[in-house]
């Protein structure tokens, strides 16, 4: 497979990782000034953020959850399938055809070159979504599919295998079309296609992304095209680089991220309408809110449906406490007392604004802690590099804002501190974020500790509402009482 275009993306990532040292606070470093960092997020959907002077008010864009950036971040920090348990729900279009499930890649009857590609990637067995979706995607006649499964469960590998199984390398025109929400995500998926298709030397991949300018009248000979909706639409219509009538497989990846970007929904639908009736339509998404569902049904006629549900997260193995303080200096003192009394393998500390996070990281660093700071103004590659270092244990404390709370699996984290409680944009408790934040300490049944810092009547009220929501007592902790601190450590 052609690899030139991908090599460029790898270089970009490595260059980004090199800037890491500026962003990880060592004992002698000054905390970075958030004003001096620029944010480019993830291409099309990148954020633009303003600083907010000396005030600690949250700006509108501060911590804005950028779905595309979060998805890219998850991909960059993930080095293997996330280990979670899933229940599967399959709705088949034809109830009479029993869904056969496969337990090995051999049972999928993949072409030998693909099997070689799969094993070369280090996959031994199909994941749940692969086991369920692949037999449907590879069935004859081809069937349409809408599939939902959490981030990192193997969706990309599943549809890449489907595309590679259907393509005929002897025909030198586009046969598979894959839409990604951003340039960077398209490159990530392209990388998987390159790796899996490694044993098909005659197979070629084209990137329909901004900046890839082709001469008018050019006809694309690559069999697979991956790109963003705007450019793909131009290539199929105005520029006629692709003949949409010859497309056999149409994949719409990350549908939830796609619809979060203005215009992508309409462009995707316009592309879909140009495809032949018998083209196989596949749509994947990590989440399935109503809006995603409506979009999926517009794009995929007569679909089979697969949904995977993660088992409920619980707070059962996590001890939760709160500490009463009057201001952020007192919160910091309480934090130092906690650190002085109990041994903490690794901790994550969540702040409401990046300004507080930056201040706190600086203070902790002055106290001699090895601190990593993660916040929304960093480019995604920089965030991934910071998380990687933390996972490797190079820093023991990670100070972060909400933007990075999801999708990070760090097994060694034994304590989570909510320096500020999570609230939504209206100032109400954000229970879901609370669960995500502190849920990471009690993974796989291990015991964890969560400490909430309270500095006002308002935050006490938020805490009480969180307590009611989960119906779980959050106990008071006096951080000046060393005996009490030692007790919780045991
Ligand atoms: N069968 C498998 N065995 C082992 N590892 C796998 C398998 N399938 C995928 N992986 C690996 O697991 C990770 C996640 O897979 P993948 O990117 O396909 O998930 P995804 O569901 O598409 O994620 P996202 O929602 O972020 O797009 C990747 O590093 C991939 O190489």
UniProtKB/TrEMBL annotation:
Localization in the cell: Cytoplasm; Nucleus
Molecular function per GO: ATP binding; hydrolase activity; RNA binding; RNA helicase activity
Gene Ontology CC entries for this record: cytoplasm; nucleus
Helicase C-terminal domain mapped to chain residues: 317-485
Keywords: ATP-binding, Cytoplasm, Helicase, Hydrolase, Nucleotide-binding, Nucleus, RNA-binding
Reaction(s) catalysed (UniProt annotation): ATP + H2O = ADP + phosphate + H(+)
Enzyme class (EC, first level): hydrolase
Assigned EC number: 3.6.4.13
Domain Helicase ATP-binding: 136-306
Start and end residues of each DEAD-box RNA helicase Q domain: 103-131
Motif (Q motif): 103-131
Region (Disordered): 22-67
Pfam families: DEAD, Helicase_C
Name of protein: RNA helicase
Source species: Pelobates cultripes (Western spadefoot toad)
């Amino acid at each position: 497979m052609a690899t030139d275009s991908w090599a460029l993306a790898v270089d970009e990532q490595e260059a980004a990782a090199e800037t890491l040292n500026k962003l990880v606070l060592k004992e002698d470093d000054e905390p970075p000034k958030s004003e001096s960092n620029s944010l480019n997020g993830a291409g099309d959907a990148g954020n633009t953020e303003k600083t907010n002077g000396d005030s600690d008010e949250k700006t509108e864009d501060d911590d804005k959850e950028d779905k595309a950036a979060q998805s890219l971040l998850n991909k960059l920090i993930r080095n293997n399938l996330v280990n979670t348990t899933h229940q599967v729900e399959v709705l088949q279009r034809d109830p009479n055809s029993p869904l056969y499930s496969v337990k090995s890649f051999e049972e999928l009857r993949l072409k030998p070159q693909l099997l070689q590609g799969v094993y070369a990637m280090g996959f031994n067995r199909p994941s749940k979504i692969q086991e369920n979706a692949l037999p449907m995607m590879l069935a004859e006649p081809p069937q349409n599919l809408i599939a939902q499964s959490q981030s990192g469960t193997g969706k990309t590998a599943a549809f890449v295998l489907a595309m590679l199984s259907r393509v005929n390398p002897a025909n030198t025109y586009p046969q598979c079309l894959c839409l990604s929400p951003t340039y960077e995500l398209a490159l990530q998926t392209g990388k998987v296609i390159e790796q899996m298709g490694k044993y098909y030397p005659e197979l070629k991949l084209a990137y329909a992304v901004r900046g890839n300018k082709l001469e008018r009248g050019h006809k694309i000979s690559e069999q697979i095209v991956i790109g963003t909706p705007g450019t793909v639409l131009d290539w199929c219509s105005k520029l006629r680089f692709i003949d949409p009538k010859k497309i056999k497989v149409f994949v719409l990846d990350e549908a939830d991220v796609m619809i979060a970007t203005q215009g992508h929904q309409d462009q995707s639908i316009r592309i879909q309408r140009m495809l032949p009736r018998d083209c196989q339509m596949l749509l994947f998404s990590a989440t399935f809110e109503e809006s995603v569902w409506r979009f999926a049904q517009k794009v995929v006629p007569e679909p089979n449906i697969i949904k995977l549900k993660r088992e409920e997260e619980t707070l059962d193995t996590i001890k939760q406490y709160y500490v009463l303080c009057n201001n952020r200096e007192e919160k910091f003192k309480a934090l130092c007392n906690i650190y002085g009394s109990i041994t903490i393998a690794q901790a994550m500390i969540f702040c409401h604004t990046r300004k507080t996070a930056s201040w706190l990281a600086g203070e902790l660093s002055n106290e001699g802690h090895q601190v990593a700071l993660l916040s929304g103004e960093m480019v995604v590659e920089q965030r991934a590099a910071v998380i990687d270092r933390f996972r490797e244990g190079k820093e023991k404390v990670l100070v972060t804002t909400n933007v990075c709370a999801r999708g990070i699996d760090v097994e060694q984290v034994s304590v989570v501190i909510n320096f500020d409680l999570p609230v939504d944009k209206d100032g109400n408790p954000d229970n879901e974020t609370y669960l995500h934040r502190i849920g990471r300490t009690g993974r796989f049944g291990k015991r964890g500790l969560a400490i909430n810092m309270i500095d006002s009547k308002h935050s006490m009220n938020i805490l009480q509402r969180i307590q009611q929501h989960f119906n779980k007592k959050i106990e008071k902790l006096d951080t000046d009482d060393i005996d009490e601190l030692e007790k919780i450590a045991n």
